[in-house]
Fold this protein.
Amino acid sequence: MGSVKSIEKVKAYFESIGEAERILTFDESTATVQLAAEALGVTPGHIAKTLSFLVDGKPLLIVLAGDARMDNHKFKEAFQKKGRMIPASDVEALVGHAPGGVCPFCVKEDVPVYLDISLQEYETVYPAAGDDHSAVRMTPKELCVFAHAVGWVDIHKEV
């Protein structure tokens, strides 16, 4: 039920800024990086996955390229604290979107959004749009603007 509300909020936001045509919806699930990449016909790296963490009990979101993995040491360096993933059962209450549709748009107030530099490798990226059957097409620079991101971080592992 919360997911429907989330995508409606995201759609309303993009309509309000004249960018509604960016939202893509699918019959098939886009809940995971692999499923989203298959639905869009792109490589997993083009999927902008949004991970939710607790740092000192407060939520924050980090968007990474879909094929990037988080480096715990770099995370601690960037935020001066160890982060832990928010348990799936708590994500919607803390962030405003349910797992599978967590995205950097229309999140709860006081939830900062950071973008990992792994996204800058790609000309076009596709974050979710609030549910597990959607995506939004944009450049990494547009993502920074549309998500009201705090800024860029480097917390991914070099593979």
Summary: The mean pLDDT is 94. The chain has five helices and eight strands.
